[in-house]
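Standup notes
- DV: blocked on the single-chain target, sequence here:
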Amino acid sequence: MWTELACSALRSGKCLELRYDGYSRVVEVHTVGETTAGNLAMSVWQVRGGSNSNERIGWKTMRLDEAYSAAVLDEKSDAPRNGYVRNAKPFRRIICQL
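- DV (later): unblocked, structure below
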């Protein structure tokens, strides 16, 4: 379910808001896929929100099974962000990407 929503945000050029690690976060989805560890995840640029690492803005890899809720916002994504790598090595299978 989160996979479809994340890919929908990516394709529509919109931001995705989600609850992750106890924080509300707004992200721009760049890649959704299966990691080399076998987890469904997404590579995102976090626009705003909380973070365990106190890095509130920047690149994150988020496991989709760790998200509690998600919604596509009516807020334009500025993806691709500087540093985006197509077919990134953390992913062994890409579901959708910019």
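- Follow-up: The beta strands are 14-20, 23-35, 40-49, 58-63, 67-76, 91-97.
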